[in-house]
Amino acid sequence: MDRRWRCSLVLLVLALDTASKGQLIRRPLNPFTVKSPSGRIALWVNPSEEYGDGPAFYRATKDGKLLWQANLPYTVNTIAITDSGLAAGCASIFGPKNIPYIAVIEISGDGIAYVLDRISQDGPQPVDSPRQPQVGGILLDPDHDRLTVRMSDFSQSGESWRRYSFSKLARTSIEKLAAPSENTARSVIGASLIQGTDLVLVDWYTFDDNRDQMGQAFTVVDANMKQVWRIDLVGDFDSDKKGEEAYEQSSKVMNSGLILDVSKPNRFDVRFVKQKVRVKFEARRTGQTWTVTEVGRSPFVETPKLTPPSRIFKNVNLKTVRTLKVPRTADPPSQVHDVASFSVVGKKIILLRGGAQPSICATDLNGREIRTIRLPKMPIGAELMMAKANENRFVLIATKDEGAGKAWAWTVDFARSSCGALKNFQAFHVKSVTAFSDSSFAVLSTEHVPFSIAEHLSLHSSSGSLVWDHRQYGTSGRSGELLSPEDVCADSVGNMVVVDNIRHTLQTFDRKDNLVRDLDLDKAWGKKAEYPTNVVCAPNGGFWLVDMFAVLHIAHDGKIIRRLEPRFVGNKMIDLKGGISLDESGVPWCTDGFSIYRLNSTGLVDLTVGNKTRRSGIGDISQLAVGIDGRVYAQDRVTGGVSVFSKSGSNLFTCMPAATGLQSGKFGPSFDIARSGCVYIHGEDAVASYFPDGTRMKSVRVLKGKPKGAPFASNPNWYWRWASLLDEHGQVQGHIERWPDLSWLEYQGVLEAPNGELAIIETPSGFAGQGLLKLAFLTSHGVPLSQMILPAIGDKVGAAFDGQRVYISTDKGLCALDRKGKPIWRSKPKGWNDKWEVYPSLGMLALYNGDRTVTWVKPQ
Question: How far apart (Å, rounded) are the C-alpha atoms in residues 674 and 560?
Fold first, then answer.
C-alpha cells in the first residue's frame, strides 16, 4: 500500500441533532489517547467542547516522538489505530442549514482532511432518541484495503455496513448484516476482525420474550456478509441474582467486552458467561469454504478491580462548643402537610401524607383533622400514590424504581377505619393509578429490561389480582401502542384514559383492553402540546390536563375550553406536585406538597387549606448555610426569605425577595452567601442581592451562558454558584470547565475557603464507577494547583474546605483530609444521617442536622 495511506488518519464524523441535545442524557467527551496494537503509535485527542460537538486538538506520536499535531474542525469520539498509522473514528459535525450528517473523512499525515462520503441524518426520526442512523462501530482492515462503518437504526434489525476503499478514496458497497434470529436477536454488542482472514466475528445480544431469558449469540460472516458460523448461548446472562442486582450484573458483563482476543491469525477467544469459561476457536479455509471449530477452553479469569488507595482514618469524637436552634416564628403547620396525593369529597379533603410516618387523613376545608388512618410501615424509599374508588374507599400504592420495578397495594376504608394489604397485587414501577367504583383499579407501570424499558397498562380486581396486562416493549407507531404513557384516569363510563407525553395523545381503552379512541392533542389544538403529564375526567364533561406549567380544561373532542396557570395572588406560580383534582362541581384543586389550593376561573388561588401563604416569619426551612463569621442563614420554604442570625442567635435582619418582585421559578428560590457576608437570592431569571447589613442592592437579570477565558478575581463580595463565579449583580465573571487533567467538570460545585482558595470534589458516580473521588485544588484565580484520587469513603453528600483541610460528609459520617488527600480523622456524631451538612465557621466546624439545629464542634 502507498506510504501516504499507511500514514493517514481516517475519521468517521458522526453528527448529532441539536434538538435532541436537551432531551437526551449525554456524557462528556474527555481528552483521550488511543494506541496501536504494538503501543508504538499514539494519538491524543483533546475536544474543545464538552460533548465533542466542535473542533479538537490532535497530536500523533511514534515512540514518544511527534509525528504531527493539528487543530481540526472535528472531534473524534471513537477511534482505532493500526501499527502502520492508519486510524478511523467518530466525531460530530453539522452541514449547511444546521442539517446533521455522517461524513467519512481521510486525514493525511500532515493533518489535511478530505471528505470521502456524507450520510444524511435528516430523515424521519424517533422521538426523544439520538439521530438515526447511528454509528455502531468501525472495522479497520488495511490488509484488504477496507474500512467498514457499522450503521444501526432503531427502525431496523441488524446493521447496515458501509465499506470504503482507502486506495480509491471512495465507498465500494453498502451491505446488510442480518440478525441471526429475528425473534430473539436484539442488537450487536460488538464486532471484530479475525486476523489473517477477511472474516468478521459478531457478538449479538439476545432476549427470548417467551422464556424471559437474556443471552448472546456469536456469528462469523465473510467478505460477502454471508454467515459461515453461529453459536447460540440462550440464557447466558441469566443469574441467581434478582431485581436491580441482576440488571446491573448483565449490563456490566456486556459492557466488559465478550470478544476477548482476536490478535492471533485465524484465532479468536470469546467468553461464555454462564459456563464461566474462555473458549478458543480457529477458522480454517478449504477452497471457498470456511469452517470454525473449537480448539480449547479454560476458566475465565476476570480483570482485577481497581483497588482503592489504602488509607486509614483515625476515629475521633467531636466536642460540642456551641449550639443554635433556628426558631420557628411562623404559625405551626396544620394537618395538611407532606401531601403526596389528595381528593376533594364534598366538604372534606382526603389526603395522603408522606414523610416519616405516612398516613391518610380527612380534614375539613379549614384543614382541621376529622379522622386519620395510620398506615403500615412502608418500604424504605418508596413513592406513595392514592386513587379514589368512592367516597369511603381508596386504593393506596407504594412503589420503588429499582431492578425491574416493584409495587405494593392496599385498600383504605374510611367507613371502617381500616387499611388492608392486597396480597395478590403485582406490578413494576407504578407511575399512576386510577380506581373504579367497584374498587377495581388500573395502573400504569414501567418495567426495566436491559438497555430499555417496557410500558404496562394493567387492570386489577378489588383483591389486587391481575385481570389483564397491556405490555408494550418497543413501538412501531400504531395508535394502540404505549409509547410514553404518563398518567391514567377513569372516565364516566369506566374506561381508562391514558395521556402520552411524547405522542401528545389521549388514548381511551375499555375494560377489555380494546382501544376505543386515540385523540391527537396537537391536531385538536392546532399547535403542539408542550409536555402533557396529568389527566383527570371532568364531571361536567371533557378532561382537565396539565401541560408543562399550564392547566387546561378540554372538551371531549380535545378543543381547549379554558387555560389556567395556577398562581397565588401576587402572580407567584404554584410549584405543582402531581396533577389536578376536581371536586364534585368540577372546580380544580392542586397542591405544592405543603398546602392544598382551590383555583378560581382565572387560575388564582381563592382558598388555601393548610399553611396560609405568608409574607414573613420562618416556618419550614428549605435551605440553611453557616458563614465563616458564625452567622446562620435560614431560608423559609414558603416566602423564600432568608433570615440572618448572629452567632449568639439574635435575628439580625431578613432578606425578603418578594419585595423585589423576584419570580421564584419552578423549584422556588435558593440562595448563596459570599465570603464578605453578602446574600444572593436566586429566582427564575434574576437575583436579589443584599449587602452584609441587609441593605438591598439592585436586582438584575442573570447572565446566561459561560464565558471562556474570563479572568478570575479574589473579590470577597463575589460568590461561586456551582462552577461559575458571579459578581454582586449576578453577572458571570468566570467559569471552571475542566479538572486540572483537562477532563470536563460534570455536576460538581466549587468549594471556596475563607482565604478565597478553591477545591473541587468529584461526585460519587465518577472515576470509573469504583466509588473513588477526584479532588483538585486551585488558587483564588482559578489556576490549578494539584489533583489526586481520594480513598473510597462512602457516598458523598456534602463537602467543605477551610483552606487547610477538606471535610466530606458521607452516609457513614464526617471525614477530614489534608491538602495531599491524606486522611486525618473520621467521626460519626450522634444522630448522623445523610441530611447533615458541614461548614467551616469561627475556626471550627458548624454541623447542620437538617432539622433547625446548628452545632459548632472541634475534634478531640
Answer: 48
Q: Under a CB-based contact definition with an 8 Å cutoff, are residues 587 and 598 in contact?
A: yes
Q: Can you give the pTM of this predicted structure? A: 0.70
Q: Determine the average pLDDT of the residues in 75-90.
A: 80
347: exposed, middle or buried (Cβ count in 10 Å: 0-12, 13-18, 19+): exposed
Cα separation values, 833 from 322, 622, 847, Å: 20, 17, 12
Task: Name which of 92, 104, 84 is nearest 165 in CA terms.
Answer: 104
Gap between the Cα atoms of 16 and 525, Å rounded: 31
At residue 765, the pLDDT reads 47
In the predicted model, is pLDDT for residue 17 greater than 50? no
Classify residue 10 as exposed, middle or buried by CB count within 10 Å of its CB (0-12, 13-18, 19+): buried
Closest CA to 333 of 369, 359, 385, 374: 369
Buried/exposed 55-81: b ≥16 CB within 10 Å, e otherwise: ebebebbeeeeebbeeebebbbbbbbb
Helix (H, G, I), strand (E, B) or coil at 341: strand
Q: Tell me, what DSSP letter sits at residue 474?
A: S
Which 3-state string (H, E, C) describes 357-369?
A: CCEEEEEECCCCE
User: What kind and span of H or E run contains 248?
Assistant: helix 243-255
* Residue 323: CB atoms within 10 Å: 12
For residue 348, count other CB atoms closer than 10 A to its CB: 16
User: Would you state the cell numbers that stand for residue 458, as one nine-digit string?
Assistant: 394493567
Reduced to 3 states (helix: H, G, I; strand: E, B; else coil), residue 692 is: coil
Cα(776)–Cα(280) distance, integer angstroms: 45
Determine the Cα–Cα distance for residues 266 and 244; give it in Å rounded to an integer: 39
Report the C-alpha gap between 46 and 71 in whole angstroms. 9
All cell numbers assigned to 315: 476515629
* Residue 721: closest CA among 781, 777, 769, 673: 673
Q: In angstroms, rounded to a whole number, what is the distance separating the alpha carbons of residues 129 and 126? A: 6
**Of 309-323, 358-372, 553-567, 796-810, where does the model show the most confidence?**
553-567
Q: What is the pLDDT of residue 22?
A: 33
315: which DSSP letter? B
pLDDT at residue number 666: 46
Residue 370 CA to residue 372 CA, distance in Å, equals 7
Q: Please give the biggest Cα pair distance in the chain.
A: 94
Answer whether the bond into residue 142 is a cis peptide, omega within 30°: no
What distance lies between CA 748 and its chain's CA centroid? 15
φ, ψ of residue 254 to 5 degrees: the values are -65, -35
Question: Reduced to 3 DSSP states, what percent helix, strand and coil does the chain have, rounded to the nearest 5?
Answer: 5, 50, 45
Beta carbons of 296 and 268 less than 8 angstroms apart: no
Q: Which three cell numbers stand for residue 762?
A: 468529584
Q: How far apart are CA 592 and CA 86, in angstroms?
A: 59
Angle (CA) 751 755 761, round 5°: 20
Question: For 311, phi and psi rounded to 5 degrees?
Answer: -130, 140
Which residues, at least 6 apart from 765, have a Cβ–Cβ distance to it below 8 Å? none
Helix (H) or strand (E) holding 653: strand 651-655
The beta-carbon contacts of 644-649 under 8 Å, at least 24 apart in sequence, are 644/679, 644/694, 645/324, 645/326, 647/322, 647/324, 647/842, 649/324, 649/325
The count of other CB atoms within 10 Å of the CB of residue 798 is 18
Return the C-alpha cell found at 1: 500500500
- At CA 801, angle to CA 799 and CA 806, rounded to 5? 70
- For the chain, what is the mean pLDDT? 84
